[in-house]
């Protein structure tokens, strides 16, 4: 394609809410055959709400909410924000945290009211020999089978309960995925969340391939593996933990509603945060390059 044609293409993209970093990017867009989609904030709205609190025997609901809420108030994760918001509303305020650390892809840890607390994946708690009871574990599995995300809470050496949050699929995601398939692309759902939740969301939007329970630093390896199988990979994401994978992909697309780190690592920004714009970007490049040949 001529430089002029590519420039016209990027200009048209801007009108559609597709910001393309350089005209040459349209060339790589055209060859894409696989589109890896981050779940939270990309396929789903990422706006979670707390829907249930399940405590271990001997733990008071209010205490669980207060400690988990205080810790999560220091985290930017959508799960954390849902928990902190619900706890603030129910309790009227939250205590200060005495120390705080984010454990990428797993959860948070810190000290609240003198207690060393953890909030996150069940594996984060078991790393510290904190285990959910059989009953709470069962309730957790049931909520997950129902497509919800469940995080565990523990402090002072014991698991204290779980918090159930629910995310909703963006209203435009299923349509976007149907359009991707119509263009001959294979959508793949990639997430750090557990497989039950991932499968449920995938089924809801029509994605057949799911790669779940992937740690943030492993997301990039998934992209590399697909490339080594000969796939030309586009990746759509929004989070800090998606950035290395967005940079590694043959084409990185960031949700405009996402983090600056993801946007910087990407070739294209989808201003509206709507997955249909990813389809528009691929159509635009095919059209731009196809007509000039
Ligand atoms: P995704 O790939 O869906 O955006 P992440 O990689 O950010 O998910 O997180 C993976 C999992 O780690 C979450 O589903 C959750 O179980 C746990 N997790 C991460 N951060 C937090 C947090 N701040 N609070 C509770 N759980 C967390
Ligand atoms: Mg995300």
Task: Describe the fold and architecture.
The mean pLDDT is 93. The protein contains 13 helices and 13 strands. The strands form two sheets. A seven-stranded mixed β-sheet has the order 1-13-12-11-2-9-10, sandwiched between helices. It has a six-stranded antiparallel β-sheet with strand order 3-8-7-6-5-4. By secondary structure, it is α/β, with parallel strands linked by helices. Magnesium ion (MG) binds next to helix 3. The site of adenosine-5'-diphosphate has 23 residues, from helix 3, helix 5, strand 5, strand 6 and strand 7. One of its GO terms (biological process) is copper ion homeostasis. GO terms for molecular function: ATP binding; ATP hydrolysis activity; copper ion binding; P-type divalent copper transporter activity. Keywords: ATP-binding, Cell membrane, Membrane, Metal-binding, Nucleotide-binding, Translocase, Transmembrane, Transmembrane helix. Belongs to the cation transport ATPase (P-type) (TC 3.A.3) family. Type IB subfamily.
Give the SSE layout.
Blueprint: H1 3-15, E1 18-20, H2 25-31, E2 34-38, H3 39-43, E3 49-55, H4 61-72, H5 78-91, E4 97-103, E5 107-112, E6 115-120, H6 122-127, H7 134-145, E7 149-155, E8 158-166, H8 173-182, E9 186-190, H9 195-205, E10 209-211, H10 216-228, E11 233-237, H11 243-248, E12 251-255, H12 260-265, E13 268-270, H13 276-292
Parallel strand pairs: 2-9, 2-11, 9-10, 11-12, 12-13
Antiparallel strand pairs: 1-13, 3-8, 4-5, 5-6, 6-7, 7-8
Helix pairs in contact: 1-13, 2-13, 4-5, 8-13
Protein name: Carbonate dehydratase
Subcellular location: Cell membrane
Family: Belongs to the cation transport ATPase (P-type) (TC 3.A.3) family. Type IB subfamily.
């Amino acid at each position: 394609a001529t430089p002029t044609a590519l420039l016209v293409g990027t200009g048209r993209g801007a009108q559609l809410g597709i910001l393309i970093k350089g005209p040459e990017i349209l060339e790589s867009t055209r060859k894409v055959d696989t589109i890896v989609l981050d779940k939270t904030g990309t396929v789903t709205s990422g706006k979670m709400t707390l829907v249930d609190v399940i405590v271990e025997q001997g733990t008071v609901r209010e205490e669980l909410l207060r400690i988990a809420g205080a810790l999560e108030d220091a985290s930017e994760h959508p799960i954390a924000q849902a928990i902190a918001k619900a706890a603030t509303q129910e309790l009227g305020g939250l205590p200060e945290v005495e120390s705080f650390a984010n454990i990428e892809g797993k959860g948070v840890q810190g000290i609240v009211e003198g207690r060393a607390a953890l909030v996150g994946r069940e594996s984060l708690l078991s790393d510290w020999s904190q285990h959910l009871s059989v009953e709470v574990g069962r309730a957790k599995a049931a909520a997950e089978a129902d497509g919800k995300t469940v995080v565990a809470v523990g402090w002072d050496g014991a698991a204290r309960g779980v918090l159930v949050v629910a995310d909703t699929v963006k209203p435009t995601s299923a349509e976007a995925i149907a359009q991707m398939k119509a263009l001959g692309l294979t959508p793949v759902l990639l997430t750090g969340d557990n497989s039950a939740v991932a499968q449920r969301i995938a089924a809801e939007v029509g994605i057949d391939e799911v790669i779940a329970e992937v740690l943030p630093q492993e997301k990039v390896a998934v992209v590399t593996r697909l490339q080594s199988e000969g796939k030309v990979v586009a990746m759509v994401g929004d989070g800090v933990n998606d950035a290395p994978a967005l940079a590694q992909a043959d084409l990185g697309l960031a949700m405009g509603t996402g983090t600056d780190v993801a946007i910087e690592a990407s070739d294209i920004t989808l201003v509206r945060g709507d997955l249909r714009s990813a389809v528009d970007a691929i159509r635009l490049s095919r059209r731009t390059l196809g007509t000039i040949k």
